[in-house]
Amino acid sequence: MSATDDLVLEHRRVAEFLDRSSEPGAADGPEPSLDDTLAALAALGLPPGSAVLLALSNSLHMLRLYLSALLLGLVPLAVAPATPSARIRGLARRLDVAALIAAWPDPERYGAPRAHPVPGGAAVLLNDASGPPPYRAGDVLMSTSGTSGAASACLHRTSSLLRNAERHAGAVGMRAGDTVLVNLPLYYSYAMVAQVLAAYGCGARVVVSGPPFSPATYVKQIADHGVTHSSITPTIVRRLIEGPTGTPSGVRALTVGGDHLPPDQVARLLAARPGAELYLTYGLTEAGPRVSTLAAHAEPPRRYASVGLPLPGVRVWLRERPGDEGTGELMVASDTALVRKISDAPGAGRTLAAPGVVATGDVFRIEDGYLFFRGRLSDFVMIRGEKVSLSSVRHTALTLPGVERCVTRVGTGDDGESFLEVELAVPDPPPDAARTLRRALNSLLLPSERPRTVTVTEADREGFHK
């Protein structure tokens, strides 16, 4: 695919892509064809440009429906399958959604007389949708970065997502003949664009799995299906390097995205997989979504804290703030940026600073062209007269043995001063875990960074955190 073309999905190539894809544990029997799925969606009578919300778990059915919607000129929006019906109704109103496709939708909850069967689920036509479609064929809606079910979305073009996928595939060494394990939620742009569309574009095959994530299942699926390319998050990295299964040795290339991976864990991953490829990536849905990549296996340790160099066709710079010399908000100019953001949230309009220019809301420094993440703009607060990076506190907490997740909260005392509270998720925490971890955390933090309270909760071993 040429980066200068207006890229489109092709029926023949989509059919071939689905035919070479697989799903562990899928029911025996023939899979519905692409044409079967196209016919079922066309029978709904929706005109091109109609938005369709897909609340489905990871599966080949989900992929087939999503790609079929695009081929028909519909505008898909993938959301978590557990999204409550009230939230779906809110999304439908805000985004002018014409239909919902889910595994077992109750039409009465949406004011519809019945559900229409489609391969892999059923469709409910939403009565709230009226008038001409507000979108056009080739549009795509994607959930906003950092949200979990909020009534907002990013509007993209299919062509720009395919272009971003092509660039990302080149940066992480994905190629024809690779087998790509997709175990991250397909309603996140990281999985749908950086894995599915990237594999489609370069001729790789995908194995559609999870969530929920299990280290033992992950390692087994890699071995059983000959997986050569896998994308994971820092949460998964910690579970692998600290657990009994260890890191998978058979995968040629691992990519890590979704959050910052501490340099010591980068070093541990590289040491555990000598000669293998490790790519650290940065992106956000608004940018299309991938922005930069670090080929960590080819870089010196001083760059393990970096998320690398911008992708081809991406230009970045810092919008500096008073008192923050050397750092600033990362600005991204790309032909894969969102068309517009649809949201009622305060400040949503600042994201698209100009056509093709995204204000990321992330603070970076840039050294020799390499990007180093420092935190979110909202992550910097004043506590006892000192500027504190909540991102730094979280990353420090995640270096403690057993800590799988850290949540920071800022409160205000009776004296008007801000204070910090920390919640740590730990598997099977002992009774004195809060006291022990507080002592260990305070030993690593500056006085202004130390939380007023530390609480410990049991880690959700089956959950996925973006």
TrEMBL record:
Gene3D superfamilies referenced in this protein's UniProt entry, alphabetically: N-terminal domain of ligase-like
Pfam family, one: AMP-binding
Regions that span the bilayer: 38-56, 63-83
Entries under InterPro entries matching the protein: AMP-dep_synth/lig_dom, ANL_N_sf, ATP-dep_AMP-bd_enzyme
Alphabetical UniProt keywords: Ligase, Membrane, Transmembrane, Transmembrane helix
Keyword Ligase appears in the UniProt entry: yes
Keyword Ligase annotated: yes
Domain of life where this protein originates: Bacteria
Example of a GO MF term: ligase activity
Domain AMP-dependent synthetase/ligase: residue ranges: 39-335
PANTHER family in UniProt: LONG-CHAIN-FATTY-ACID--COA LIGASE (PTHR43767), NONRIBOSOMAL PEPTIDE SYNTHASE PES1 (EUROFUNG)-RELATED (PTHR43767:SF1)
Protein known as: Long-chain fatty acid--CoA ligase
Species the sequence originates in: Streptomyces triticirhizae
